[in-house]
Specification:
Elements lengths: L6 E10 L3 H13 L5 E5 L13 E2 L2 H6 L12 E2 L2 E7 L4 E3 L15 E2 L2 H14 L3 E4 L3 E6 L5 E6 L18 E10 L6 H9 L11 E10 L9 E7 L8 E7 L4 E9 L9 H8 L3 H7 L3 E11 L10 E2 L2 E3 L15 H20 L8 H9 L1 H7 L4 H26 L15 H4 L22 H5 L14 E3 L4 H10 L3 H4 L5 E4 L6 E4 L9 H5 L5 E3 L14
Parallel strand pairs: 1-2, 1-11, 2-8, 5-13, 11-18
Antiparallel strand pairs: 3-7, 4-7, 5-6, 9-10, 10-11, 12-15, 12-16, 13-14, 14-15, 17-18, 19-22, 20-21
Helix pairs in contact: 1-3, 1-7, 7-8, 8-9
């Protein structure tokens, strides 16, 4: 697009994504030097609109960033009071005593929060310090300097023709240029993916691994509500061959977060993650909480689970990867927001030091070192074998061996008898031909506890301008039918939690249809497609889900 003429604006640091990582970086930069020019670009219609997380927040990152967050009115008020873990059977449940759980799994001192609301509050703190925040500004292209360094991004392109070309009504956007550019796009960010490939940042790391997390917010009857209660489960309905599990968190005001995570390394292409979530809610332990209540919101997003060994080199010429763009979720704890904040702080401190020394456009080696050796690295290194052990030995074997490994490292200063286990295949490569597996018969949603996908997607308040080009690109338009349908029984019709993909017609008339207007930006398709034929890119700014308080 070099022929497109654009205006440009220059900053000291350009930050892509107003999540906990990007906002932490912005705040820390202004704390260090109030004269630094910092801009945050957010593709959602407002800060928080695209934020979806469990979430039980470990406040360590927030406390490090804003020590007086309580007196400043942060929406972090519901402290965890009860912490339970259940192994589910189809009708019953076996509790795991808390004393058997490794200490790092303890949620004492953590808070049940809406991360969307936390980010809205953090944005207010950032703006008070002088940070410029522009929501509705999707970043669609990278801008490189003469020496190949990342120099900036293109943001604010609107009104493209349906075929992706520029028309007379197209707004070409602007180039926002910085001495350093931070990419904090969340899981599988489109620009982060390009940067990792361009600079070969994953050359010395293991393959990235992911799960698909789906979440609903419920308003339940007061007698079913237990503020501060945290419940995690594993087992039914996924069983003991496929890893994943659930969460149920009781907020204030009779609100309950209920969610399900399915690891995307599943082999059977007939598996339907969304329907596993819907079936889960009919378990007696869950149904008794939800019965008589109403679902008020729904959303989904991919979750990073590669851990320590999958972190790519996170600093590169002119920029850095922050938060989930680098894959910083602690899988067994189901927590990554604290690490996102720590990464933002570390990147800000490295950039401030470099700018003060008159540098720009180089590689922030201090950041990459701090990420691995500081709080984030220490948090992730202790749990690095949980995902590989789950993959190799199944959820039950993984639970026992992973639990042993975490306990052993706690007792012996981080030393592991397993060393560092490798992940092996990517999630796409893990998918096996449909001929090796039986199809799965899922019960029809009852419309009371369980819901069909399209009805639930309406509760994500998703909107995409219909005239714009689809933001889901096929490398080869023939692969979905000729390969993925024939060999894998069309898994995209199931792995997408929003019903974006469907196969219509029969036999020679069968076609692959993309309903991009349904997309909730989870990016599962970009990860799980067995042919790696789908690429997710940003739609125009402001489009996508509009989560109220996820």
């Amino acid at each position: 697009m070099s022929e497109i003429e654009r205006e440009s604006m220059e900053y000291d640091v350009v930050i892509v994504g107003a999540g906990p990582a990007g906002l932490s970086a912005a705040i820390r930069l202004k704390q260090l030097d109030a004269d630094l020019n910092v801009v945050v670009l957010e593709k959602g219609s407002e800060v928080g609109a695209h934020i979806l997380s469990g979430a039980v927040l470990d406040p360590s990152g927030l406390t490090r960033l804003i020590p007086d967050w309580k007196t400043k009115g942060a929406p972090v008020t519901v402290e965890v009071k009860k912490d339970k873990f259940l192994v589910l059977g189809e009708a019953g449940a076996l509790p795991l005593p808390n004393f058997l759980m490794p200490p790092l799994m303890n949620n004492h001192g953590n808070y049940i929060v809406s991360m969307g609301n936390v980010c809205r509050w953090m944005a207010e703190q950032a703006e008070e310090l002088g940070v410029e925040i522009f929501p509705g500004m999707a970043c669609s292209e990278l801008v490189h300097g003469e020496n190949g360094e990342l120099k900036g991004v293109v943001a604010g392109v609107f009104g493209l023709e349906a075929d992706g070309s520029y028309g007379e009504n197209t707004e070409p956007g602007m180039e926002l240029l910085g001495k350093y550019v931070f990419l904090s796009e969340g899981v599988r960010g489109s620009l982060s993916k390009q940067v990792i490939e361009k600079y070969d940042l994953a050359a010395d790391s293991d393959v990235p691994k992911f799960g698909i997390g789906m979440k609903e917010i419920w308003e339940v009857k007061p007698e079913n509500h237990d503020e501060g209660s945290v419940l995690h489960t594993m087992g039914w309905p996924l069983g003991w061959k496929q890893s994943g599990g659930s969460f149920m968190y009781h907020l204030d005001n009779n609100q309950v977060y209920v969610g399900y995570i399915v690891d995307l390394n599943y082999k059977n292409p007939h598996l339907f993650p969304y329907m596993e979530f819907q079936r889960f809610k009919h378990h007696p332990k869950i149904a008794k909480v939800l019965e008589g209540g109403k679902r008020t919101a729904y959303g989904a997003r991919a979750v990073t689970k590669g851990g320590f060994q999958s972190i790519p080199q996170s600093a590169f010429p002119g920029g850095a990867l922050l938060g989930c763009s680098a894959g910083l979720v602690n899988l067994p704890r189901i927590k990554g927001n604290h690490n996102a904040m720590h990464s933002g702080i570390a990147a800000a401190e490295a950039a401030h030091k470099a700018i003060a020394a008159g540098r720009s456009g180089d590689t922030l080696e201090d950041y990459d070192a701090e990420l691995r050796e500081g709080p984030v690295g220490k948090d992730l290194k202790r749990v690095r074998n949980v995902a590989p052990l789950n993959a190799k030995y199944g959820p039950l074997g993984g639970l026992m061996l992973g639990g042993f490994d975490m306990w052993f490292q706690t007792l012996f200063g981080g030393f592991s008898l397993f060393g560092t286990k490798a992940h092996g295949k990517t999630d796409a490569e893990s998918t096996e031909p449909a001929s090796k597996h039986k199809s799965i018969d899922y019960p029809k949603p009852d419309g009371v506890l369980s819901f069909d996908r399209l009805t639930n997607v309406s509760f994500s308040f998703t909107n995409h301008e219909e005239g714009q080009p689809a933001h889901l690109h096929l490398k080869d338009p023939e692969i979905p039918v000729k390969v993925n349908w024939e060999k894998y029984a069309g898994p995209s019709a199931r792995y997408c939690p929003a019903g974006v993909y469907e196969f219509v017609g029969e036999g020679a008339e069968r076609k692959f249809q993309i309903n991009f207007q349904n997309c909730v930006h989870c990016k599962t398709c970009d990860i799980k497609d067995p042919s790696q034929n789908i690429t997710w890119v940003t739609p125009q700014g402001g489009d996508g889900p509009n989560y109220p308080n996820m």
